[in-house]
Specification:
Length: 273
């Protein structure tokens, strides 16, 4: 298994040196997976199709786990994921002669958010962990108003949830009282309408309807995510079955090109360079 994982990491490095590939007219690319990566995939697809009128790109969300499952089931050409593939997913893929190859396309920061009326501005990793475990239940315990905390979380099929579970909860269980949401957009909507709520979202989903919190005094930004100073940052991926060719290769190389990375930045995420 270690050999497989090392091969996948080598594939990421090799992408930077791959050729542009040739887009073939009349082809369709199917992309499924992460709702975090969805805005990047949609914007890149729109730009790519303008330059390649004969190519159609179909995109849907559903979560990182569902995207990788679709890749294993051979029902998608590209699986978008906000986390790296798991050993058990590789184990399921190999017997089906599916060989997932990762392509890093962007960097993201996961940002805790509250209702704009909440006076809390900063939480530590330890405080966030206790809130999400249900051990801190009132905002006054962390310097806020005397209000019960409503915990809003992504569901377990989400790569964002899994990164939050690893980096914030340190594998502890999220409170059974938490409201589980299927997408970043749903988390934003839930928190924006509830002055008691706390949630977490990908950096590109921030808007004026919610208030971002710093973590341990560190603000999520392009600089802090790239440098690794921000404590809840992660790469975003597109996975293919084996090394991509033809139109799929051409599209992926577009995403990691200067033009594609400008799209990443425009969508509010952190470009690779």
């Amino acid at each position: 298994m270690r050999r497989i994982m090392n091969s996948l990491l080598v594939a990421v490095i090799c992408l930077a040196f791959a050729g542009w590939g040739t887009a073939l007219a009349g082809e369709t690319i199917v992309i499924k997976g992460s709702t975090t990566v969805l805005p990047v995939a949609q914007a890149a697809a729109e730009a790519y199709m303008k330059g390649h009128p004969g190519v159609n790109i179909s995109i849907s969300g559903g979560g990182s786990g569902n995207g990788i499952k679709a890749l294993v089931d051979k029902s998608t050409d590209i699986a978008t994921s906000s986390r790296f593939i798991k050993d058990k997913e590789i184990t399921l893929a190999i017997p089906k002669k599916v060989y997932p190859v990762p392509h890093r396309v962007a960097i993201d920061a996961i940002v805790p958010i509250v209702h704009p009326s909440n006076s809390v501005k900063d939480l530590t990793i330890a405080q966030l962990s206790l809130i999400y475990q249900g051990k801190i239940r009132n905002w006054k315990e962390v310097g806020g108003p005397d209000l019960q905390i409503v915990v809003v979380s992504r569901d377990t099929s989400s790569g964002t949830y899994e990164v939050w579970e690893e980096k914030v909860l340190h594998k502890a269980k999220v409170s059974p009282r938490a409201q589980l949401q299927a997408s970043n957009g749903a988390v934003v909507q839930a928190v924006s309408k509830n002055k008691y709520a706390v949630g977490y979202i990908g950096f590109g989903y921030l808007n004026d309807s919610v208030k971002p919190l710093t973590i341990g005094g560190i603000e999520a930004s392009v600089e802090t995510a790239l440098s690794g100073v921000y404590p809840v940052a992660r790469p975003l991926f597109m996975f293919t079955d084996g090394w991509p060719t033809g139109t799929v290769s051409s599209f992926l190389n577009f995403v990691v090109s200067r033009e594609g990375q400008d799209i990443v930045k425009k969508e509010g995420f952190v470009p690779l360079f």
